[in-house]
Amino acid sequence: MSLISTILRRLVLLVFVVAGVAIITFTISHLIPGDPAQLIAGDKASAQTLAHVRQELGLDKPVTQQFVIYVKQLLSGDLGQSLRTRRPVAGDIALFLPATLELGIAALVMAIMIGVPLGVLSAIYKDGPVDQAARVVSVAGISMPVFWFGLALILLFYVKIPILPGSGRITLGIAAPPRITGFFLVDSLVAGDLKAFWSSLYHLILPAFVLAFANLGIITRQIRASMLDVLQEDYVRTARANGLSRSAVILRHALPNALIPSVTLLGLAFGDLLYGAVLTETIFAWPGMGSYVVSSIQTLDFPAIMGFTIVASLGYVLINLAVDLTYMVLDPQIRELG
Amino acid sequence: MTEPSGDVLLEITDLSLEFRTYRGPIKALNGVSLNVRAGEIVGIVGESGCGKSVTMMAATRLLPKGAAHITGGGIRLFGSDPMKLSERELQHVRGRQVSTIFQEPMNALNPTRRIGEQIVEVIRRHQRLDNAAATSKASGLLRDMLISEPERIMQAYPFELSGGMRQRVLIAMAFSCEPRLIIADEPTTALDVTVQALILGLIKHKATSTGTAVVFISHDMAVVSQLCDRLYVLYAGRVAEAGTTASVLAAPAHPYTRALIRCLPGLAPPKQPLEQIPGTLPDLLDPPAGCLFRARCREADDRCVSVPPLAAIEPARRAACWRRIEETQAA
Amino acid sequence: MAADGIATSPRPASRLRMGRLWYRVKGSPLTLIGTAIALLVLFVIMAAPLLAPYPPDKISLSARLAAPSLQHLFGTDEVGRDLFSRVLFGARASCGIAFAIVIISTVIGSIIGCLSGVVGGIVDTAIMRLMDVFLALPALILAMALAAALGPSLFNAMLAVAVVRVPAYVRLARGQTLSLRNRTYVKASRSFGASPAYMLRWHILPNALSPIIVQATLDLGGTILTAAALSFIGLGAQPPTSEWGSMVSSGRNYFLDQWWYVTFPGLAILISAMGFNLLGDGLRDMLDPRLGGR
Prior knowledge:
- The structure holds three protein chains of three kinds.
- In chain A, about 80% of the residues lie in helices and about 0% in strands.
- The model of chain A has no long low-confidence stretch (mean pLDDT about 85).
- Chain A has helices at about 5-30, 35-40, 45-55, 65-75, 90-125, 130-145, 145-160, 185-190, 195-230, 235-240, 245-285, 290-300, 300-330, 330-335.
- In chain B, the strands form two sheets. Chain B has an eight-stranded mixed β-sheet, with helices on both faces. Chain B has a three-stranded antiparallel β-sheet with strand order 2-1-4, with helices on one face.
- In chain B, helix 3 (about 115-125) crosses helix 4 (about 130-145) and helix 4 (about 130-145) crosses helix 6 (about 165-175).
- Chain B starts with 7 loop residues before the first strand and ends with a helix.
- The model of chain B has no long low-confidence stretch (mean pLDDT about 85).
- Chains in contact: A-B, A-C, B-C.
- At the A-B interface, helix 10, helix 11 and helix 14 of A face helix 2, helix 3 and helix 6 of B.
């Protein structure tokens, strides 16, 4: 399988996936019990208003035509109007997306920084105390209800031992940095506002850790398993037989080969991260897409829910594509032959 | 013929070793004794599973930790006990003083790093050379292995090379720090017959020109007889017979050695049908009493219910067979 | 090369297998713990009415938000219901829904996957491309959207999660089918004119089952979490149903002062998810020693 043909295959799949998302969200929107026009116009609307809304939304047209209109709107970046905020969904998402990304990236970095060393140690000292502890931590991570863990940590580190903030992105009273990227950490540095930077960083610690914890388990497991595989390889034995130091054997010969197959995991982890973000943001009142979609769910704001679904799915698909390409670039066998 | 008189590099005395499994301990080695002196080429022959590789991996402590347990005897490698060395001291012995060439060249090189980097890494680990000097040394080593464009090979990844080419790279790597001893563990078994002869020639030539001692592990009596000064024949974790190659081939003392020789077209007496050895290796989880070869031996009798010692039968010749021991004593 | 070349005397195969199984289990206390938790959960589901000291819906306004005591082991909620009893009954909704989801998606997925593999050709290609599309999407986000569209209820949440889990089982079952289809005995059966349905029933399904069961066990833990999470954000069980996720959700309003309200239902989720994850891990390790490490 060469690099180029793989990329082409993935791009074709991408087209299908995007079409699939459109069909799924369109179908779901039509599954909604009740009349969307009624939802938008409100309970007290007159028959005339309803007809007007229906016409405006194109609900009086045949389903196939409605789908064409829907796809056209999607292609032009129009995700409809939120029933709750009365603003375009696309604009709302653009507003909340950076907060989610900031949280997600922080969590991923944290999970990798703890999970990779833990997995490596676990494989080297297989069945030893470190390995046993790491296994317990990873099973706990995989089995932990994110929403409950968040509450527990707030109780511990915000209420009982008040050392960390328990909600929001920045301390009340400190002005948010002027929006450039929407990432508070970046924007505050650009603005030279160190006070806002430290406050944002403090606020990030607990939610990012909660979100990282579940992925920590998955990463630790994956690294442990592939390290164990790699440590049995002949080339590791060669390196040892040639007297290379323990750290050279592990860091230069075993780990890179163990990391390559683990890269694909990153893409999948992103899916869990997105979903976990929905729950984490709710707990920590983090003003991101997750909080937005939960509020939308609670008010049955379907355009917002579907808009979120489309954006999340597209992001997931694109990130997985990028991850797979990275994987191929990292593996010399594929890179050189491609 | 007497044994060569160089320094003893490796001396294994009465070594017993077992692998612990859920079914009980497998007694892989049972009182193995052997020694290797500077500059000589020593062969270890036997069927798969007889303990050839295990013996040598025990000597360099490359056996997987936890699985193998030494239950008796001792090893002296360059005058010290490898079991008592720290991990760090061991690293300075491996590669620098003793290096190993393994059987399977396909996976013996790191797939994600270039050939050159891997050789240079070993050289710079043990010698005070800068990158440029180590690189030119590596290319010289590859040239010695009859590789015509070492620079191009050093830029390649392992998967771009053939098995024979990879094995040459590994041999170059093994010789890179001028070790005193090289352990070649079936280095040609996985290769085409046409490449085998070349590889064997390269090892022999390089070893004689540098004065490096080689322990050559093989199941192939023909290969060993071409290459080695002395032989140890191993059977089921015991030394069956030991002596100079010439004397062993001329008058094999142990029935197992005779059987091994009769299996080979080139070595068997002419006009006799080739043979195979009936039966299989005994179960080392639950070994039978007495001589372990008894069940497969055509000459076995009452004496063989007790284990024969490895006794001297001639100067520099030892065998573990009652028939031969008693003949010697009678004479 | 130490052990593999050594011949072994013949031993009864079944005894050897049991011996190896026991050797592995003995060396893995975590698997034992997992098995114990899974059995405990099953017991609680069946015996909840016998074990619970109070009816789960019994309101007692005089004992609102009482701290844990001998009368109320886990304390009480904002209308004085006994949390211990509610947690016990909650096992029925929380774990029951997870069992239902896994069973539904396993059965549907396996049937589609096996059929797709046996029939082959353009049908197979079409099904698998469709599954590729589904698998390329974030399943839990889709489940959330679907559950929202169907309307918030425990049944709809179950349906939504089951639907998005089907494609993974289709792929697993199809992979198994394809590898089995090329085995000699299946080919032989086909050469005797066996129908696809016959082959599916007698050759494919029985042999494809064990990896599917392992996967299903592994998924149970995750499904318990998903179901609880959907209830937590208001998409699953609705009050006053005793369900762990929705109990944490209501308890959230009191968690600063009444720690026990969120703590015990949450612990119940964690422990039962952990039990099934440990059990699934252990099963997988036993069936595939290469993955296990032991």
